[in-house]
Design a protein that fits this description.
Helix content of chain A: under 10%
Order of helices and strands of chain A: EEEEEEEEEEEE
Strand content of chain A: over 45%
Helix content of chain B: under 10%
Largest interface: A-B, 24 and 25 residues
Largest sheet of chain A: 8 strands, mixed
Oligomer: heterodimer
Number of helices of chain A: 0
Shape of chain A: globular
Number of strands of chain B: 10
Radius of gyration of chain A: 14 Å
Distance between the termini of chain A: 40 Å
Structural class of chain B: mainly beta
Number of helices of chain B: 0
Radius of gyration of chain B: 13 Å
């Protein structure tokens, strides 16, 4: 069965960086994009961006451009999200989810089935 | 940038009642890329509806999605106790955004 398992909670100081992992199983990582979504305490869902493990293509939310990097390691079926220059308003639960793109036989399409599987979430706390 | 506005902010209903949740887009969007999610406290969101009207795997048929253009609706025909939760609409594909959410609470 499809599973996305994320790394554990992190506490960081302002200005530091955090790197969250998301290990996929039950399907082939390169066929599907991984999307990252975050949720600040008591707030709604915020789309951060997606990455295609097939070709490394990414799309990031404009407000996070310059601080955000998404990568994948196909040898371990793991996706990573790194956020730099952390601020207190980056305190949130970070989720990875399957979706964004579908790639097969050399062609990629926008995945029309939504974000169909989610990781359990990783709490990132930014505090001095 | 597309903005999704959900209404109402909170819906107070009793088990067995019908719930109607609205999601309005600031400009016309493809219904192929409109989804609804349910989220309970302390849990990750769960996909309910994709493509505006298709139920995700394992979703009961009391959940239904409809709409096109700028107006979309999630309907829960008869509320079960486990349906009281937060609901988000989302546009994805060429641009990505979530609505701010509708809370369905027990009256």
């Amino acid at each position: 069965q499809v599973q996305l398992v994320q790394s554990g909670a992190e506490v960081k100081k302002p200005g530091a960086s955090v790197k969250v992992s998301c290990k996929a199983s039950g399907y082939t990582l390169i066929n599907y994009g991984i999307t990252w979504v975050r949720q600040a305490p008591g707030q709604g869902l915020e789309w951060m961006g997606w990455i295609s493990a097939y070709n490394g293509n990414t799309s990031y939310a404009q407000k996070l451009q310059g601080r955000l990097t998404m990568t994948t390691d196909t040898s371990t079926s793991t996706a990573y999200m790194e956020l730099r220059s952390l601020r207190s308003d980056d305190t949130a639960v970070y989720y990875c989810a399957r979706g964004g793109l579908y790639c097969n036989f050399g062609t990629c399409y926008y995945y029309s089935y939504g974000l169909d599987f989610w990781g359990q979430g990783t709490t990132v706390t930014v505090s001095s | 940038e597309i903005v999704l506005t959900q209404s109402p902010g909170t819906l107070s209903l009793s088990p067995g009642e019908r719930a109607t949740l609205s999601c309005r887009a600031s400009q016309s969007v493809s219904s192929s890329f409109l989804a609804w999610y349910q989220q309970k406290p302390g849990q990750a969101p769960r996909l309910l509806i994709y493509g505006a009207s298709s139920r995700a795997t394992g979703i009961p048929d009391r959940f239904g999605g409809s709409g096109s253009g700028t107006d979309f609706t999630l309907t829960i025909s008869r509320l079960e106790p486990e349906d009281f939760a937060l609901y988000y609409c989302q546009h994805y594909g060429t641009s990505w955004t979530f609505g701010q959410g509708t809370k369905v609470e027990i009256k």
